[in-house]
């Protein structure tokens, strides 16, 4: 199980709930000690220009993917916005020999409506064509058949499967996994309660991890697993991730 963690979950959220921490190197130093093997880097809108990915050589670090968090914006279909934010990220990812960029299409960037999906793909597709060495991993709260059609635009389009998001959408995990079996490159580990909508500690919500891991094993999934579990008590981030890692590994090894 290639288990890692989203950037910032091993640090107090002083810079924000989900941000690249100032002492980002510390999190990489902790990986082997915690039995983890990768971090998904975060690039947000608010701290875009100060993000180290644009001015540091981070090619030697265990970075599995870069989450383009700035895409969660009502500007996500705007070609000028993508040129300003997505294009420099693509160049930085290539320069640092990182394979994947996660594109979150959630909340303000939801693509549930077909006309919005079509509009987005029209402005987004050129980046997948220009940057063929990058895998673009779409993370969307979207029915698997609709999502699969989005992936047909280019061969370097794949999926980040967020277990909590799919739960909260009321989608069937088994159907989702088998429909997208050859396109899932990363699994975000998260548990959610459907009503009221809330992210909770693994096994405390409505996400059936035993079913999920059973199905992923059936399709011979051997890709990335990334802990994006709920934050607990400030100052006890390492203890939280240790606990959540143990829960997930026990479920996986059933």
CATH topology: TIM Barrel
- Give me the Rg, rounded: 17 Å
- E-strand count: 10
Low-confidence stretches: none
- Major sheet description: 8 strands, parallel, barrel
Question: How far apart, in Å, are the first and last alpha carbons?
Answer: 13 Å
Task: State the name of the first-level CATH class.
Answer: Alpha Beta
Shape: globular
Please report the number of helical segments.
8
Query: H/E order of the elements?
Result: EHEEHEHEHEHHEEEHEH
Tell me the name of the CATH homologous superfamily.
Divalent-metal-dependent TIM barrel enzymes
Mean of residue pLDDT?
97
Structurally, how many domains make up the residues?
Answer: 1
Q: Could you explain the architecture of this structure?
A:
- The protein is 37% helix and 20% strand.
- With 254 residues, it is an alpha/beta fold.
- The chain has a single domain, classed as Divalent-metal-dependent TIM barrel enzymes (TIM Barrel), CATH 3.20.20.
- The strands form two sheets. It has an eight-stranded parallel barrel, surrounded by five helices. Strands 8-9 form a two-stranded antiparallel ribbon.
- It starts with a strand and ends with a helix.
- The mean pLDDT is 97.
């Amino acid at each position: 199980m290639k288990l890692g963690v989203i950037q910032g979950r091993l640090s107090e959220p002083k810079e924000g709930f989900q941000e690249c921490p100032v002492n980002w190197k510390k999190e990489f130093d902790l990986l082997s000690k915690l039995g983890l093997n990768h971090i998904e880097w975060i690039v947000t809108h608010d701290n875009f220009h100060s993000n180290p990915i644009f001015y540091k050589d981070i090619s030697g670090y265990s970075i599995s993917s870069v989450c383009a968090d700035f895409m969660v914006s009502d500007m996500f279909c705007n070609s000028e916005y993508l040129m300003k934010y997505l294009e420099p990220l693509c160049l930085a990812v290539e320069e640092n020999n990182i394979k994947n960029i996660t594109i979150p299409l959630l909340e303000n960037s939801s693509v549930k409506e077909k006309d919005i999906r079509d509009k987005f793909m029209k402005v987004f597709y050129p980046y997948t064509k220009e940057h063929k060495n990058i895998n673009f991993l779409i993370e969307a709260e979207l029915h698997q058949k609709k999502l699969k059609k989005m992936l047909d635009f280019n061969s370097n389009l794949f999926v980040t499967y967020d277990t909590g998001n799919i739960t909260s959408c009321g989608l069937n995990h088994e159907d989702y996994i088998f429909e997208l079996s050859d396109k899932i490159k990363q699994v975000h580990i998260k548990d959610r309660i459907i009503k009221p909508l809330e992210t909770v500690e693994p096994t405390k919500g409505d996400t059936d991890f035993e079913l999920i891991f059973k199905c992923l094993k059936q399709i011979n999934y051997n890709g990335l697993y990334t802990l994006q579990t709920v934050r607990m008590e400030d100052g006890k981030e390492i203890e939280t991730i240790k606990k959540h890692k143990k829960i997930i590994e026990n479920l996986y090894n059933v």
